[in-house]
Design a protein that fits this description.
By secondary structure, the protein is α+β, with helices and mostly antiparallel strands. The protein has 8 helices and 13 strands. A hairpin with a 2-residue loop joins strand 2 and strand 3.
Length: about 260
């Protein structure tokens, strides 16, 4: 017969203890083992007369390091749908590739384009599916989906929370690390000037770039435009279009002159 007392210390504690895992017991070590993933920072969408403008800075960060300064954060999904991404860049690109394939497959198999509600629901499902990983700090991202509704004859802006719930904005949307700092500026523009949907394309683009500049001033992760121009795309009845670099340079120079006057 085995003497169980031989397995105990004099104080009654077991001689054999389960192994201790530092990564589980030390917050510092656990942090050291985490993957360093790149994150997109700030993206903005505003309506204008005839469609929607999307702008975004070009910076991708990992903690306090700049991983890349020419990141594409406003990406076409189909001819009339744009996805502006913030958060995990790798996960966002995976979702963009999946949505492009899913929308095209549906159109080819059903001989008709997927409805707007179907597109919105598919994106919500993908975001919700990534929630377990996002809760562990990996792969979380928040998108803004903009589209031109040809039936209604207007541009539309939709944003999501981390669990996949969607909301439609009547004027503007923003996501990313700099979005909270500029939230009140959107309302100030609408209340003191005019609603975005009443602006022409140039005026709305100027305001969107000004908002991005303010975000870069107030948020360390949002990149400015001293080296690389921001990204800007429009979506309208004609489809998706890129804002020419010459137009961006002109508006950026105008905002820089405004900043100099404010010093």
């Amino acid at each position: 017969m085995v003497d169980l007392r031989a397995l105990l210390n004099p104080d009654g504690r077991p001689v054999l203890q389960p192994p201790a895992f530092p990564a589980a017991d030390s917050r510092r070590d656990a942090h050291a083992l985490r993957l360093e993933e790149a994150h997109g920072t700030t993206v903005i969408a505003v309506k204008y007369r005839g469609g929607v403008i999307n702008v975004g800075d070009r910076r991708a960060t990992a903690n306090f390091a700049v991983m890349y300064d020419r990141a594409e954060k406003v990406l076409p999904i189909d001819d009339y749908t744009l996805l502006a991404i913030s958060g995990s860049y790798a996960r966002a690109m995976e979702v963009v590739r999946y949505l492009r394939h899913a929308f095209k497959y549906f159109e080819r198999s059903q001989l008709q384009p997927m409805s707007l509600d179907g597109k919105l629901s598919e994106l919500a499902r993908v975001i919700a599916a990534g929630l377990p990983a996002a809760l562990q700090g990996i792969g979380g991202f928040i998108p803004i989906l903009t589209t031109y509704d040809r039936q209604a004859g207007e541009g539309r802006i939709f944003f999501y929370d981390g669990m996949g719930a969607r909301f439609e904005s009547t004027e503007f949307g923003a996501a990313g690390s700099g979005s909270l700092q500029i939230r009140g500026v959107f309302d100030y523009i609408v209340k003191t000037r005019r609603p975005f949907h009443e602006m022409d394309r140039e005026e709305a683009l100027r305001e969107a770039l000004l908002l991005l500049d303010i975000a870069a001033d107030l948020d360390a992760a949002t990149g400015g435009w001293s080296k690389v121009l921001p990204l800007a795309k429009t979506i309208s009845e004609e489809g998706i279009g890129d804002v020419p670099d010459d137009e961006l340079r002109s508006l950026v120079a105008e905002i820089d002159r405004m900043n100099q006057r404010g010093l």
